[in-house]
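Moderator note: this is an archived Q&A kept for reference. The question asked for a predicted structure of one protein chain; the sequence and the answer are reproduced below.
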Amino acid sequence: MMKRVFTIAAIAAALATTSCGSSKSNGLDSMSYTIGADLGMNLNFGMSDLGLNDDIVVANVLDFYVNGDAEGEEIMELRSRMMEFQYTRFMPYMNAKRQRDFIQTDCPDTLPALPELYDEEVFTRDGVSEIIGKNFGGWIKSIDAVLDLEDVELGMRDALRLEDIAHVDSLMLLTQEQMRTVLNNYTARKQEEARLEREKLMQENAEASAAWLAEVEQMDGVQKSESGLLYRIDREGDGAQPANDTDVVTVNYEGKVQDGTVFDSSYERGEPTSFPLNRVIAGWTEGLKYVKVGGQITLWIPAELAYGENGSGAIIGPNQALEFKVELLEINAE
């Protein structure tokens, strides 16, 4: 539905958890004006087939930025409505329009009719204008920048008055190059802030994990291997022990991070799981060789034997040690 002139929506998605302040230069907040100009040009040149009510779109962009919920049910409902309109109305309309444009005829009355974009009950022109305006407002709100709404509106209005994209540099307060520079500088600054924040988190996790493992090492029955893996045999089994990295084991297990949050559990899924020992993290490959079939072992795995600096998923952060309770049920040859 939309041709992005710049990259506001992508920046919003990438930087949804960041924030920044803005300062005015010569009376104009360049970030706010650039965001407004981007939205205005996409309305003007990317969404012209919709024939939207621009005043309603602009008003709802600004209102949602101030009053809307960009993270909860409200924005999800707006996005759902926008997708419904796109797939049930806009795409059929544009497909039919392309077919009409493709047919060469001296009798335009014989061309297939265009389906209706709007009606008076489900999708009115003003209603769709409101939905799109609020979605745009959600995008710019998720950037979490401190914006000057007067300059956002100014950028939108200036862009909406353009008759040709080629006139941007001569008729708007910032050139396209200046606006790209604004966005590039903002993106670079936020990326650097994110890098520094991640480095801080990595250091904090490494220190917390080291302290945790040092405490665990003092617990009764805990042993430490040359690799730094900590383990305790909770129940002696009476079967064989895995001997090769290619052995396929069947286990029940539960994995936790330091604060006790469970991030994975075959018990919760209600069935054991099987895998070759050379297809899992190094702490498992080593640790399962210390327990016999029918036994249970607890593993405390340093980050370098688990997911290292990358972490895994939403729960396992970078440089986090892990705890696993594992029951070995069966061993199969490769």
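Archived answer notes: Residues 176-217 form the longest helix (42 residues).
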